[in-house]
Design goal:
The chain is of the alpha+beta class and 64 residues long. It contains three helices and three strands, in the order H-E-E-H-E-H. The longest helix has 7 residues, at 37-43.
Length: 64
């Protein structure tokens, strides 16, 4: 049987042209009125994961 890709991971990260993994900062759409303008502005930026695609494929395991 073929290995399956973790769908939860593929929905949360994006791969750049250079092979870096980008994630969206959590909590951006929840209770925005209680946050300052500075925090809301900073949340719009995406964050880079410390892994490349090559390294992530070595580290990650497939779930069945």
């Amino acid at each position: 049987m073929a290995n399956k890709t973790s769908k939860s991971l593929t929905k949360r990260i994006r791969i750049t042209r250079t092979g870096k993994l980008i994630r969206r900062k959590m909590g951006i759409d929840h209770f925005k009125t209680n946050k300052t303008k500075k925090v809301r502005r900073q949340m719009r930026n995406n964050r880079s994961l410390g892994y490349s695609v090559k390294k992530m494929s070595q580290v990650s395991t497939y779930t069945s």
